Amino acid sequence: MDNLETSIQFQNVSYQRNETIILNNVSGDIYKGKITALVGPSGAGKTTLLKLCNGLISPTNGDILVEHKHITDFEPTSLRRQVGIVLQNAPIIRGSVFENLALPLKLQKKNLSKDEATAMLTTVGLEDSFLNRDASDLSGGQKQKLAIARTLINRPKILLMDEITSALDPISTNEIEQLIVNIKEKYGVTIVWITHNIEQAKELGDFIWVMMKGQLIESGDHSIFSSTRNIKVQQFFEGKI
Amino acid sequence: MTYTSLALTLIFVLIPLILSRTLQLGLEKDTIFATVRSIIQLLAVGYVLKFVFDSDSYIYIFLMIALMIVAATLNARKKGKTIRGITWKIATTLIIVEVVTQSILLGLNIVPATAQYIIPISGMLIGNSMVLSILFLNRFTAEIESNKDSIELILSLGGTPKQAVHTQLINAIKASMIPTIESQKTIGLVQLPGMMSGQIIGGADPVVAVQFQILIIFALLTTAALSSILVGFLSYPTLFNERIQFLEANNQKI
């Protein structure tokens, strides 16, 4: 990993809600311009980890550095524009596809041009004829593509995605997977992708993080699929957990 | 009205009691409690008002209004338990509503500055403001509860707290104001307002009663707008912390 530049650094990060420990002493690096697949059983703390990076919540203990800058040194709205997040079943706002795409700029009191909107739709594999359609009429896969496009409007350096294909059919899942690879190549963004699908993680992840019960159990490149000695991780990879 | 006639009005309490017992609604205890409480409260208020009117002292008028604001605040705050510091937010709203409306009424000499006018009008305006605050808080907390994902979406895209709850805030303000506006559309056609009816029964000229009622309904419009907007704009920032994090997010997916 010597030639890789870090994009996000977790330093002994813990997160506790009331009496429940959700993340326990997580340390590790996410590399710039790479796809890190975050896998683990439900309740492992994966979504919490993403929300911490986007600043929607703050760690109870430990530090997070984004692009070598402490997360608390960012102005919250600025951090969230640089670290985009697409949450599972991200809501589509009432209105047209264009209105959804224009939302991030509208929040900054700026306007999105029709050309920019069309270009972004093309990037995510939607035809420009979708622009004036009612967003609620889109299929599940199309809505996820729109949610990704909407987040990309802010031109984030880091893109966090939370199980965005979990509710999609195989064809839509393939399209989104290809889209993510294209986005990485086109924009050079760092991607952290939560997935339950081990095959998806193998296929797309440059790096894999395995989380269980709030802890980072294993991390590394593809070699961890064969080299891990952790029995629970092996069982998880084999689909037994 | 004689005390005998007044006692006969208890028939109106007996009817719901009999119906409740017959249909096993289980409302007998509540009905009796409400009846006794209303008799005691109204009699007490009657004697207090007589004392205040006779004394004609601004200190007593002030105390009477303060009492109304405290009682209205304590009642309305129950609906906004989830909002930090809701008691002071409602109290501030009621005080502003009272100051603004009375400044206009007394400052422009629309009504005489006597207890006879100040106290009943204050009672109507503070009471309406309390109902509006309750309606607003009911709707606002429900809107927030059912739109957590949308609020989090706006924040995640770099929005401010105000932008994140803008839709919910506007919906709740509108919803709480609609009953006041709607009731004014049918006023005099469907129902005769309580104050006007009271004046007419008391022997006042119906035209004079109508004039005062118009004054009240116009003032109620201001009360409605001020109450919802003030409670709303004072309340929404408490849903977020200094890092612009939605505090309700603590109850979401791990």
TrEMBL record, chain A:
The keyword Transport applies. Signal peptide: none annotated. Keywords: ATP-binding, Nucleotide-binding, Transport. One of its GO terms (cellular component) is membrane. The keyword Transport applies. InterPro entries: AAA+_ATPase, ABC_transporter-like_ATP-bd, ABC_transporter-like_CS, P-loop_NTPase, PstB-like. SUPFAM superfamilies: P-loop containing nucleoside triphosphate hydrolases. This is Phosphate ABC transporter ATP-binding protein (PhoT family). GO terms for molecular function: ATP binding; ATP hydrolysis activity; phosphate transmembrane transporter activity. Residues 8-238 form the ABC transporter domain. It holds the Pfam family ABC_tran. One of its GO terms (biological process) is phosphate ion transmembrane transport. It comes from the Bacteria. PROSITE patterns: ABC_TRANSPORTER_1, ABC_TRANSPORTER_2.
UniProtKB/TrEMBL annotation, chain B:
One of its GO terms (cellular component) is plasma membrane. Belongs to the UPF0014 family. It is a multi-pass membrane protein. Pfam families: UPF0014. This is Putative ABC transport system permease protein. It comes from the Bacteria. InterPro entries: UPF0014_fam. The chain crosses the membrane at residues 57-76, 88-111, 117-138, 214-236. It is found in: Membrane. The keyword rRNA processing does not apply. Keywords: Membrane, Transmembrane, Transmembrane helix.
